[in-house]
Every structure is written in C-alpha cells, then in structure tokens.
Write a structure and sequence with these properties.
Structural class: alpha/beta
Oligomer: single chain
Shape: globular
Strand order of the largest sheet: 5-2-1-9-10-13-14
Low-confidence stretches: 1-7
Radius of gyration: 19 Å
Helix content: 25-40%
Mean pLDDT: 94
Largest sheet: 7 strands, parallel
Distance between the termini: 22 Å
Number of helices: 13
Length: 322
C-alpha cells in the first residue's frame, strides 16, 4: 500500500478514545495523535503502576504516553526523556541510597511539579492536563482515576508492588496471581466515564492486558460503558506468541494460559466488536472470529513513526467499518 492509498479517517470518525499503558500503548497513541484531530482524541491511561519514590509521585505510564506524544521520549527505551542526564540520581547514589529506578534530571522536573500540585489539592486529572498542555500535547490525556489503585504481583518470592516486580526484579520472579489494591474504593473519574460514553470509537492499545488494561477495566462502570459502546477494537500486544516489549507473554504463561492473540481477544469478548492481530498470526483469525467479532490482520509492529501512523489508520478504518 502506498502512502496515497493509506485511508485517512479524519473526516470519517467522531470522537475516538484509546485505553493505553506502557510503551506499546504509547506508540499507537502517537499514531492516533497524528491522524485524528486533537479535539477528537482522548487517551485514558493506566495509573495502577504509580508509586512514590524519594517523596515524589511517579506516574510511569502517564509519563510514557505524555513524553511520546510530546515527541521527547527516549527512542531507545520508549520511556524517559531523550538525551536526559542522571546527575541527580548519581548524587543520590553517593549518599548511599538505592537508585534502582532510573530518574533522569529532566524527568525529575515532571515528578517534582506533579507532587507539588497534588499536595496543593489539585487532582491527578487537573495536574496531567497542565503538564501535557505545557509540553504541547494536543489530545486529552486522562488518568483512569484520581484515587489510589495499585497493581500487586503475587510471585514465588512473595507479593511485590508492580515497580518492584517490573523494574527492581526485572520481571524475573514467577507470577502466581495479580490483584489490585484499592479496587473496592477507586472510581473512574467523571471525565473518563464521559469520554467513554461519547466515544464513536474505542481502541484498546497493544498494552499488557494484565497490568495495563485490566486496571482500567476493573474500575466500576468502565466495562459497562464498553459493552454499550458502538465500536470497540483491541490491538493484540502478543505477536507470534511473544510480547514485543515487556513481560506480557511470560506473565500469561506463568498464570497457566497460552500466550497468544487468541488469549488476549478472549479476555475482551464481552464488549469487543473488532480485534487486530499481526500478519504473523494470520492463522489465528479463524479461531478468534465469531458472530459479532470481526478480525483485521495487518502489520502491528511499530518501529517507525510511519508504522505507528499506518497502524492507527488501519485500526480506525477497520473500527469505522463495524
């Protein structure tokens, strides 16, 4: 397909909402932001991996999506700020403190200001709006909740907070289960529910289904909104039985299920209208497709900006056709 043949959905869709977390989610969010007018795009981001370090509120998924959309994310890692230095972290290390979580100097400015504004009584939603607008991000970024909700990974080494499992332990402990602390009291924000209700198309980005998408789905009312939505499409984060980045496949296998696009699709069948899988997994189309659930097979590997935009356009065209 040549560039002139790439479908342009700008004039064809109403409001689009994406659910995202992690580098894979941020990549597709970037593609969507290039082809959907900013005023028609809202990105709801997982906050269950937020934590506090050195007295600062860190929101890894929010920052990864924000930096990616702002065009300042580190292209080598997908997270953090491109060209950042780590002098502050090195100085903290000289004081004998553990520096397992890599905080760059420019990245620290985000966490300092976020913490300052939160302590002044502003909500995470308001703070995120302020930070993202200052960086020139056009689409609206919404944290899934203003409340505390934390992913706890149950492992063969005991229960671990998500960043402890993911970063400090480099996702090596064997996963026995996952739970969300605070699930009984956390609520989606009014902005999140309003965005979902008004959405013409809802896209679940290729994010880890267990620890990036599930925390959003467990919030009261979110799954019900997806069931009522006219077009909900998910993009598989599993390609050829492997995660392109991160521990998705490893976690699924350790929880006793197949690491496959089919497994991911099955988690969303109560609300899904369309599912996108990579051409490597074309053979899975037959067992995923069912009445009311359509499948698109395309290239889902996003290595360049052009790849991200191409996938975004294909997903939007597919969703609009449902």
């Amino acid at each position: 397909m040549t560039k002139s043949q790439i479908p342009n959905p700008k004039s064809q869709i109403g409001h689009c909402v994406a659910l995202a977390g992690g580098v894979g989610g941020a990549k597709l969010a970037y593609g969507l932001a290039q082809v959907v007018p900013a005023e028609r795009l809202t990105i709801i981001v997982n906050t269950a991996d937020d934590f506090e370090l050195f007295g600062l509120r860190i929101s890894p998924d929010l920052d990864t999506v924000m930096y990616t959309l702002a065009g300042i994310a580190n292209p080598e890692t997908g997270w953090g700020v491109a060209g950042d230095s780590f002098e502050t972290l090195a100085a903290i290390g000289r004081y004998g403190q553990d520096t397992w979580f890599r905080l760059g100097d420019r990245d620290l400015a985000t966490h300092i200001l976020r913490t300052h504004l939160l302590r002044q009584g502003r909500t995470l939603t308001v703070v995120t709006e302020r930070l993202s607008r200052a960086l020139g991000v056009g689409p609206r970024l919404l944290p899934m909740t203003n409340d505390w909700l934390a992913t706890i990974v149950e492992t063969d080494e005991g229960d671990l907070e998500f960043q402890d499992y993911f970063v400090r332990r480099r996702w090596q402990p064997v996963v026995r289960g996952i739970r969300f602390a605070g699930v009984g009291t956390a609520r989606p924000t009014p902005e999140v529910l309003a965005a979902l209700e008004a959405a013409h198309i809802i896209i679940l980005c290729p994010s880890n289904p267990l620890v990036s998408i599930d925390p959003i789905l467990v919030l009261p009312g979110v799954r019900e909104q997806l069931k009522a939505a006219p077009r909900v499409v998910a993009v598989s984060p599993i390609v050829g039985g492997q995660a392109l980045k991160g521990p998705s496949a490893k976690m699924l296998v350790e929880l006793g299920v197949e690491a496959s696009a089919h497994t991911v699709a099955a988690r969303y069948t109560d609300f899904l209208k369309g599912f996108v899988l990579d051409q490597v997994d074309a053979a899975e189309e037959a067992r995923i497709a069912q009445p009311g659930l359509h499948v698109l097979v395309t290239n889902t590997i996003m290595q360049s900006a052009a790849d991200k935009m191409m996938l975004a356009r294909h997903v939007l065209e597919f969703a609009a056709s449902l």
